[in-house]
């Protein structure tokens, strides 16, 4: 089980939503050694992968757009998985339409 500290969550929550999400995704990256491979994929649940995918998507799009996201090798992780469906299930209806 992946655990984050309550103190880290409290600090991040006071800083904003992006920082709050980052607490979780930083831990996911730590657990996977920063590598998304066949060996590390089973270390995260589907929900954890979805949150990590959201964070990667957001960061890549904000800095370099879709071209950067694909160039950095995240195209398959985002577009060949049920990312859009999960975003809809989590209530992000409009956002889910971005993922083609």
TrEMBL record:
<protein>
    <recommendedName>
        <fullName>DNA mimic protein DMP19 C-terminal domain-containing protein</fullName>
    </recommendedName>
</protein>
<dbReference type="Pfam" id="PF14300">
    <property type="entry name" value="DMP19"/>
</dbReference>
<dbReference type="InterPro" id="IPR025402">
    <property type="entry name" value="DMP19_C"/>
</dbReference>
<feature type="domain" description="DNA mimic protein DMP19 C-terminal">
    <location>
        <begin position="44"/>
        <end position="98"/>
    </location>
</feature>
